[in-house]
Amino acid sequence: MNAPNPDGDVRAQRYAIAETLLASPPPLDALAPGRAEVLTRSVVHASRSRPVVRWTVTLESRSGTSAPLAVIGKGYRAGGGEQAWRLLRSLRQAGFGDSELRVPAPYGFDPSRQLLTQEEAPGTTLHSLLDGDPRSAAPEAGRAGRWLARLHQVQGVHAPELAADFERRKLTEYAEALAGLLPRAAGRLAELTAATLEELAKAGGSRVLTHGDFQPKNIHLDRHRLVVIDFDRAAWAPAGRDLGHFIGQTLTMGASRHGNLAAAAPWVDAFLEGYSGAGGEEDAVRSAPAYVARTFAEVLFYRLVVRPVADSSFVPDWLDSWEGAVGAAAGGRHR
Question: Residue 60: phi, psi to the nearest 5?
Fold first, then answer.
């Protein structure tokens, strides 16, 4: 008799939830009217809260049958899908439609399934370019900086305000959980958390429309387009927050690939040059280190608590870099 497998049961349950989204054709209200024929359907990501699915469809109209079209669907089991759909529409109208720097075209929203459908982004992610020599791919990080500068210049788009106590609540959560796992570092974690909060309180820069999770896995690209996905955390917040999040995520992702936090440093330089060159706020660049510090806390929490990794030998170096980011914030340097 086979032993129970709780992890397998959870995966099967999540997959079944995702499959329910595929039971009916995707909503395609934004496309030309006509009958849609589903050719293929599949589960891309069987998440508990935001499963992702994919269809291939053809559209029939008076002029004939279209070429096969890939449609990505994202379920919002806890709500928020209509807000994401409206935000994508607003951003397309604000210049992120037919230019090199884009967001996916939203195709429709089905309130009964809480299902957003959208254009499929290019298959290559910025994150995948870390597999090779990061220096050779640094210009692509510069493109990401230009995209972000454009986002931060968008006005008149509806998005929530980031709560005033958000950073304090999250950093407190991270610190308490990490201290429980790393009791010998508990004192240092408390000091780093307090220092990070102090620097965040002093950080300058305007409140702008921020992506909220601007990092290499959410950036898709080819030679002609750079498409950013996943706006579930978009909010009006300090501009430096997106910069610091990208920098911290990029450095830690580079370290995971190449064994040291300096591996992706050329990306940071190119990213900031692209951002500043496209009109990004200098105050945001100056405030970025404080948000790099908070991102180190977040990534440590994720890799040790949320999805624990087998090898935690990186922790001392990452704590040192968290401390270095706090020092850079205090000294007014970008990293």
Answer: -105, 130
Q: How far is CA 220 from CA 103, 104, 288, in A?
A: 10, 10, 23
CA distance 178 to 280: 34
Q: Is 165 exposed, middle or buried (0-12, 13-18, 19+ CB in 10 A)?
A: exposed
Question: For the CA atoms of the chain, what is the radius of gyration?
Answer: 21
Contact 267, 141 (CB under 8 A): yes
pTM, entire model:
0.94
The sign of the CA dihedral 300, 239, 124, 44 is positive
Q: Give pLDDT tens digits for 253-271.
A: 999 999 999 999 999 999 9
Domains of the chain: 6-119 (3.30.200), 127-331 (3.90.1200.10)
Least confident span in 58-62, 127-131, 211-215: 58-62
Q: Which are the contacts of 20, defined by CB distance < 8 A and separation ≥ 6?
A: 113
Amino acid symbol at 224: H
For the chain, the residue count is 335
- pLDDT digits 0-9 by tens, 119-176: 999 999 999 999 999 999 999 999 999 999 999 999 999 999 999 999 999 999 999 9
Secondary element (H or E) of residue 107:
strand 106-110
Partners of 37 in beta bridges: 58
